[in-house]
Write a structure and sequence with these properties.
The complex is a heterodimer of chains A (155) and B (209).
Chain A lengths: L14 H17 L6 H16 L3 E4 L1 E2 L8 E5 L4 E8 L5 E8 L5 E5 L4 E5 L5 E7 L3 E7 L3 E4 L3 E2 L1
Parallel strand pairs in A: 1-10
Antiparallel strand pairs in A: 2-3, 3-4, 4-5, 5-8, 6-7, 6-9, 9-10, 9-11
Chain B lengths: L20 H17 L6 H16 L5 H18 L6 H22 L12 H5 L5 H18 L3 H12 L7 H6 L8 H15 L8
The chains are: A alpha+beta (155), B mainly alpha (209).
């Protein structure tokens, strides 16, 4: 028979309680897992944030003259070139595809007035940041021994 | 095991599905130490281990997935400023849970009216078709568990969701050995857990688990 009174709050925790909690955890893990890239985003945000506390060499990239053409922008610095291709999705959000040269896997963060989106370039230096809102933004790339910041661009 | 013997000396529980809770607590103690020693480079394992907890805390506040992802990211950034004052895993998880809730409430105010999540998070789960026998058994257990969870108050559902992901020393094996009361996880949480247990025990479909 169903017991209406939620008895047992003062009873000792036992194996069944632990199995129930483990099952509740499994239930939510199956029903509503974190996005696959969430850990990477958080890790990247912390890694880049750390630069503010103990900055390595910080450099500002220069936009290559005449490089802004149909959504393509290139930034140069002494150590790295950042090539960006920016397009608009059907839903109106913005997608940015980037390539770092020389190629390498680095933390990349896009900062807007209300968003900080982190990703990591692959070994070929390629990265994508999608679902962006229109507005001003700049990129921060944490390369091996330098943090590169681009001037602000308008998405 | 429903209605079976409670814990007893010399009869350590086996295959509880949660038997590594105490080890996990100790593991997080080690990760916290590493993070405190090197906040810039040593945070990665801690982020990997505890991001699911932060995610479920944020989601339990009723925000959509994109906003919750931002909330979790911001919480980790905020932790950098407080890490020096946090010395134990219990203090760490308490700080993270509180900070995540606070950030979620802030986001909720900012996005009020447009990002409340629906109650259909389990729709896909419940609609899952029959698979191999083992999967069917798991699916049946989940269905019955969700049916019981669904009968709890929203408050209880939120609390148990967070409790289930929170590593604590007081509801692992130690708790069963020491006979700690359910209320030790918090009076309301203890009542919620007891209520869920009652619902599962009294399930007319038979034993659960």
């Amino acid at each position: 028979m169903t017991t209406l009174r939620p008895a047992g709050a003062d009873d000792p925790i036992d194996e069944l309680d632990l199995r129930i909690l483990a099952a509740v955890r499994d239930l939510w893990t199956a029903a509503d897992p974190p996005p696959a890239d969430l850990v990477d985003r958080c890790r990247c945000a912390v890694a880049l944030s750390g630069l503010r506390f103990a900055p390595k060499s910080v450099a500002v990239c220069r936009q290559r003259t005449g490089s802004e053409d149909v959504g393509r922008i290139t930034f140069d610095s002494d150590s790295l070139t950042i090539s960006l291709s920016v397009g608009v999705n059907r839903d109106g959000t913005v997608r940015m595809d980037g390539r770092l040269s020389p190629p390498g896997s680095h933390d990349v963060e896009l900062r807007t007035p209300d968003q900080r989106l982190c990703t990591r370039s692959d070994v070929h230096g390629r990265f994508t940041i999608n679902g962006l809102r229109h507005g001003p933004a700049h990129l921060v790339v944490s390369a091996t021994d330098v943090s590169l910041t681009t001037p602000s661009i308008t998405l | 095991m429903v209605g079976g013997p409670r814990h007893g000396p010399g009869t350590p529980p086996t295959d509880m599905g949660d038997g590594d809770t105490d080890n996990r607590y100790e593991q997080i103690a080690g990760l916290l130490e590493a993070a405190r020693a090197d906040p810039r480079g040593g945070m990665d394992p801690l982020i990997t281990e505890l991001t699911p907890l932060l995610w479920h805390v944020a989601r339990a506040q009723g925000l959509d997935a994109a906003v919750c992802a931002d909330v979790v990211q911001t919480t980790w950034l905020n932790l950098l400023r407080s890490l020096a004052d946090i010395h134990t895993p219990a203090a760490l998880t308490a700080w993270l849970v509180t900070a995540t809730k606070r950030e979620a409430w802030r986001a909720k105010d900012a996005y009020r009216g447009e990002t409340l999540t629906g109650d259909d998070a389990f729709a896909d789960l419940l609609d899952a078709g029959p698979g191999p026998v083992e999967q069917a058994l798991v699916a049946d257990q989940r269905r019955r568990l969700w049916k019981a969870v669904d009968q709890l108050s929203t408050r209880c559902q939120q609390l148990l969701r967070v409790v289930a992901f929170t590593p604590r020393p007081d509801y692992g094996l130690v708790a069963t050995r020491l006979g700690m009361p359910r209320g030790s996880i918090g009076p309301t949480r203890g009542r919620c857990l007891a209520k869920l247990r009652e619902l599962l025990i009294s399930d007319p479909e038979g034993e659960w688990g």
